[in-house]
Specification:
Number of domains: 3
Strand content: 15-25%
CATH class of the largest domain: Mainly Beta
CATH architecture of the largest domain: Sandwich
Distance between the termini: 49 Å
Shape: elongated
Number of strands: 15
Order of helices and strands: EEEEEEEHEEEEHHHEHHHEHEHEH
């Protein structure tokens, strides 16, 4: 797949002196760091003679981007802000700088992309945050880096300081309510090691709003492992996703990411066609009014239940479950 690197029109001004001996400084992500979102690659130019840059990401090179024009310098001064499509895992970034036709310097960085921050990362890479004191000094001329409570409570387009840089996160089909209204400060309190940290995670935080669901799930006789452990974010993205209920991936893919054996053999029964019970590609006859495709949740409640295997409708007898669709 062709990897695209697209300039983003965000105006920043330069302040201070950073890495004076290098033509390019990697502001974000920092060298040898890992990120959980494919959002920005931010570079700072330290040599006013630079007129062009070429970015190579995992072997795919961009053209030489002109950055020495008066129009560019007026808008961006000495910053380059790009949107990059990281590959999962290690990403090699090379930045070549030019002054006219002369190559000035090549700067390299490698970044580890861990989507959602859900998987182990090599200890060679450290977690990265843009909101460090050093980085915020660079952004402060154009962005309110120490917003007031009133600004943090403002809606999108009404002075909310998060909206300008993070609005891309809301381009999902299914968006979590607080994220969609940019009520970011409710969860990102900053009461942690880094600014805008989320000191509470998973059920401890989610149940502050969803206490009714927490009570409903945990009072059942049989509780699904992630729910029993309070790990909401194992399945749900706290901001938004392309899938209903902000799931991290399509329902069956999510279930089979843990229950791999179900997808490898004959599930439930061996049918007359020689295969197992279908897991998808059939209409969900248990809820025909929805028009949804059959999935794991056609038969199983993903949170908890009063019978083993979390059968929907708490069908204690497997045949009663089958008769939801096979009622002949």
């Amino acid at each position: 797949m062709l990897r695209k690197i697209v300039p983003t029109l965000i105006i920043l001004l330069t302040t201070g002196v950073v890495a004076a001996n290098a033509a390019i400084t990697f502001v974000y992500p920092a060298p040898k760091s890992w990120v959980k979102r494919a959002d920005y690659l931010i570079l700072k130019l330290n040599d006013p003679a630079i007129t062009g840059v070429q970015i190579t990401l995992n072997g795919e090179a961009s053209g030489i981007m002109p950055i020495g024009t008066p129009e560019y310098r007026k808008a961006f001064r000495d910053f380059i802000i790009l949107q990059a499509l990281w590959d999962k895992g290690k990403n090699d970034v090379s930045v070549e700088t030019f002054s006219g036709d002369k190559r000035v310097e090549t700067a390299v960085n490698d970044v580890w992309y861990n989507p959602g921050g859900k998987e182990p990362v090599s200890p060679d890479y450290k977690p990265n945050s843009l909101h460090t004191a050093e980085n915020e000094r660079l952004c402060a001329p154009c962005h309110p880096m120490n917003p007031t409570p009133a600004q943090l409570a403002a809606g999108p387009g009404k002075g909310n300081p998060c909206f300008g840089c993070h609005k891309k996160m809301m381009n999902s089909t299914f968006v979590h309510g607080p994220a969609g209204t940019y009520s970011c400060a409710y969860c990102h309190t900053g009461d942690g090691k880094s600014k805008y940290a989320v000191p509470k995670r998973d059920a401890v935080l989610c149940n502050e709003c969803h206490s009714d669901k927490g009570d409903e799930f945990t009072k059942r006789k049989f509780i699904h492992g992630p729910i029993a452990a309070g790990l909401c974010e194992v399945c749900h993205d706290s901001h938004g996703s392309p899938y209903p209920a902000q799931l991290l991936m399509p329902i069956n893919d999510l279930c089979l990411s843990c229950h791999e054996d179900v997808g490898k053999g004959y599930h439930v029964v061996r049918t007359t066609s020689g295969g197992g019970h279908p897991l998808k590609w059939k209409t969900d006859l248990s809820r025909p009014e929805t028009g949804r495709e059959m999935s794991c949740v056609s038969c199983h409640n993903p949170h908890s239940g009063d019978v083993r295997y979390f059968f929907v409708n708490n069908a204690e007898d497997r045949m009663l479950l089958c008769q939801m669709c096979h009622n002949k």
